[in-house]
Design goal:
six-stranded mixed β-sheet, disordered N terminus, 38% helix, 2 domains, 5 helices, globular, Glutaredoxin
Length: 200
């Protein structure tokens, strides 16, 4: 009887391993922490401005691209999100070279290329800060489903900008594959990115 129980447990374990292997081979649903878009959502190429000149989305084809829309005067969501992304890159180790983080400003009136670059670099020297004419920012934000609107601030802060707090993850072809909610932790982000990197 004891032997049958042991054999049964071994059979269950082998079955679980086989099912897991088939999921990996056949591309079965992973336990991702973000919202997986299947099929991925395509978005037009864009041209925005960095401190080094014009940057296009297509410049990063072949990499996993993480895009966050924020602004340098943001009092809470933006520094928190970029801090989490900084920790995520540390957790990725050598795999971080497969990922490019972009911060797109939703406050182009105040965020010059120099300002947004310095802000992004404060979190990680490899993060790229982007800005542009208000019309271009509005178009790019709309293409990615990002809301942003000026809001009343104070004499100290000036106006604020309400904006979508989600982070978008693009696959190597430049299509949106994953969306992280604001609450997603660095550990969860790193696990998701490791999966996408492994998928190629």
């Amino acid at each position: 009887m004891k032997r049958l129980i042991i054999l049964g447990a071994v059979a269950i374990l082998l079955g679980a391993i086989l099912i897991g292997t088939l999921f990996l081979i056949l591309g079965g649903p992973p336990a991702l922490n973000g919202t997986l878009l299947d099929p991925p959502m395509s978005a037009p190429d864009f041209e925005l401005t960095s401190v080094d000149g014009t940057v296009r989305k297509s410049d990063f084809d072949g990499k996993i691209v993480v895009i966050f829309f924020g602004y340098t005067f943001c009092p809470d969501v933006c520094p928190t999100t970029l801090s989490r992304l900084r920790e995520t890159m540390v957790l990725l180790g050598h795999q971080a070279s497969e990922v490019q983080v972009l911060m797109v400003s939703v406050d182009p009136e105040r965020d010059t290329p120099e300002r947004v670059a310095a802000y992004a670099h404060d979190f990680n020297p490899d993060f790229v800060g982007l800005t542009g004419e208000p019309e271009k920012i509005a178009t790019v934000a709309a293409d990615f489903g990002i809301f942003h609107s000026k809001a009343e601030g104070s004499a100290e802060t000036g106006y604020l900008v309400d904006h979508t707090a989600a982070v978008l993850v693009l696959n190597r072809e430049g299509d949106t594959r994953l969306i992280w909610a604001f609450e997603t932790t660095p550990q969860q982000m790193a696990r998701d990115l490791n999966y996408l990197i492994a998928k190629g």
